[in-house]
From TrEMBL:
This is 3-dehydroquinate dehydratase. The keyword Chaperone does not apply. Coiled coil: none annotated. Homododecamer. Its EC number is 4.2.1.10. NCBIfam families: aroQ (TIGR01088), PRK05395.1-2 (NF003805), PRK05395.1-3 (NF003806), PRK05395.1-4 (NF003807).
């Protein structure tokens, strides 16, 4: 099995970006933990971080042979109909993840326009949201 991992805008600054909200782990550390966990379960990961909506969409279009997608669309979650459409178009099981609990913050974060085309959403567990997203896809694909 192979899954894509997509980190949206500003997540390249993890570690120094609002650590009280997003934690102190860097994106590289999160990716290393995810890769190790995926390897334990015989899953390969192809990881992208992008601050660019079109690049995220092109990455989804260009990797249509994968078995799952873990995506943190970051701020795009709240308004990108284009990413919503791309997830729907590729028709690959997708889990949306957020480090913070988007339902306990500003009102504009509570609404995700991308979650409705995902199997489900995991929000609020810091870096562990990504691990839970991985487990959710494995469970979805192997049961
Ligand atoms: C985020 C939550 C979003 O509201 C925010 O724009 C982000 C990160 C999270 O992982 O908690 O950039 O997706």
């Amino acid at each position: 099995e192979k899954y894509l991992v997509v980190h949206g805008p500003n997540l390249n600054l993890l570690g120094m970006r609002e650590p009280g909200i997003y934690g102190t782990m860097t994106l590289q550390q999160i990716n290393e933990i995810l890769l190790a966990e995926a390897a334990k379960h015989n899953v390969k990961l192809d990881i992208l971080q992008s601050n660019n909506e079109g690049e995220i969409i092109d990455f989804l279009h260009g990797n249509r042979d994968v078995d799952g997608i873990i995506i943190n669309p970051a701020a795009y979650s709240h308004y990108s109909i284009a990413i919503h459409d791309a997830i729907k178009a590729v028709a690959i099981p997708t889990v949306e993840v957020h480090l913070s609990n988007i339902h306990s913050r500003e009102e504009f974060r509570a609404k995700s326009v991308t979650a409705s085309v995902c199997i489900g959403q995991i929000s609020g567990f810091g870096y562990y949201s990504y691990i839970l997203g991985l487990y959710a896809l494995i469970q979805h694909n192997r049961s």
